[in-house]
């Protein structure tokens, strides 16, 4: 017998009296056509006042609409006891603090050891059945807030918020150099590097991308900086590419450490190469994520604490810039 998640419940208002149930589902619950087609095939997909009905029936004020989705599992993902930090969890969402170095989802050559393996194991130990549905992505070496939907309805709604640009994604990066001006935006279309397909570059033929930034701290006359960033688009490696295009690559970023459009003297390059050894990954952390909870209908902010390796790097930059005592 099929098992179902907790239903999405809606009470018909006076304004909707006489509407078709299908109209309520699409205009009030905002159920997509694709999801609605899937739900209709299940035994308890759409209920009206506790009874299974066709979505072509009319509703009356006070009627209770329930949308039920069958429980699903990620049978293709091997459960593994991989630790991770839970920032928030309810029956619809799981928000985690992803560690640097861990891949979000199994890919070719990386079938185990991913965040997905750990999350599936975590759910199984709790006797829960969910399919792993990350709503967005973070690079392997980027730490911070990651949202995971527990059902297709929630995944659809938050994904649509991302497409509409109403999800706020904020990052902190420690970079070489200092942006000029200290606050502003980078509007640079991004696409694959034709010479190295794994890299991205700013190119007029690329996809539109915009990053807002604010300089928080400058060290050693601007030879390094802490930057707050907000994405207004979600291109692969966007922050890393945009910061590099400004002459401010992320400290520790081995892929984007070269600056083909900026001339760097040998002494500055030597300093940067030394600092790149102070952290084992690019110094980028997704510190904050804000969106409207699809069920609670409230805008919620999730925050991930500053990671230890970036805090240690920040301390070294502070120590390096501090005045030296005379002997």
TrEMBL record:
The catalytic activity of this protein is classed by the Enzyme Commission as 5.4.99.-
Would the keyword RNA-binding be found if you checked this record's keyword annotation? yes
In its UniProt record, a GO molecular function of this protein is: 23S rRNA pseudouridine(1911/1915/1917) synthase activity
Q: Which reaction does it catalyse?
A: a uridine in RNA = a pseudouridine in RNA
User: A single Pfam family, by name?
Assistant: PseudoU_synth_2
Q: Which residue numbers delimit the Pseudouridine synthase RsuA/RluA-like domain?
A: 92-244
- Alphabetical keyword list: Isomerase, RNA-binding
Q: Determine if Isomerase is one of this entry's keywords.
A: yes
| Origin: domain of life | Bacteria
NCBIfam families reported for this sequence: rluA_subfam
Q: Which family does it belong to?
A: Belongs to the pseudouridine synthase RluA family.
- What biological function has been recorded for the protein in this entry? Responsible for synthesis of pseudouridine from uracil.
- Name by which UniProt lists this protein: Pseudouridine synthase
């Amino acid at each position: 017998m099929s098992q179902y998640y907790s239903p999405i419940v809606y009470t018909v208002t006076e304004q909707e009296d006489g509407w078709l149930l299908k109209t309520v589902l699409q205009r009030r619950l905002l159920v997509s056509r694709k999801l609605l087609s899937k739900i209709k095939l299940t035994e308890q997909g759409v209920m009206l006042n506790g009874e299974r009905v066709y979505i072509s029936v009319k509703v009356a004020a006070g009627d209770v609409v329930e949308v039920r989705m069958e429980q699903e599992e990620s049978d293709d993902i091997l459960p593994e006891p991989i630790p991770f930090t839970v920032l928030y969890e309810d029956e619809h969402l799981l928000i985690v603090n992803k560690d640097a170095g861990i891949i979000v989802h199994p890919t070719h050559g990386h079938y185990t050891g991913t965040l997905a393996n750990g999350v599936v194991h975590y759910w199984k130990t709790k006797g829960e059945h969910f399919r792993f549905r990350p709503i967005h992505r973070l690079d392997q070496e980027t730490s911070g807030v990651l949202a995971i939907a527990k059902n297709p309805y929630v995944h659809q709604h938050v994904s649509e918020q991302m497409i509409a640009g109403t999800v706020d994604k904020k990052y902190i990066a420690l970079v070489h150099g200092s942006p000029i001006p200290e606050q502003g935006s980078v509007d640079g279309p991004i696409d694959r590097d034709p010479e190295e397909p794994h890299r991205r570059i700013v190119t007029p033929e690329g996809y539109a991308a915009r990053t807002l930034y604010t300089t928080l701290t400058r060290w050693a006359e601007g030879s390094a900086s802490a930057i707050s960033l907000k994405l207004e688009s979600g291109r692969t490696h966007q922050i890393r590419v945009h910061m590099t295009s400004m002459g401010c690559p992320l400290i520790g970023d081995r892929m984007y450490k070269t600056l083909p459009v900026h001339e760097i003297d040998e002494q500055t390059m030597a300093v940067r190469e030394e600092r790149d050894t102070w952290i084992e990954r690019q110094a980028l952390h997704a510190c904050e994520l804000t969106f409207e909870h699809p069920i609670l209908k409230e805008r919620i902010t999730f925050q991930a604490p500053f990671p230890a390796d970036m805090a240690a790097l920040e301390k070294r930059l502070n120590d390096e810039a501090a005045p030296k005592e005379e002997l």
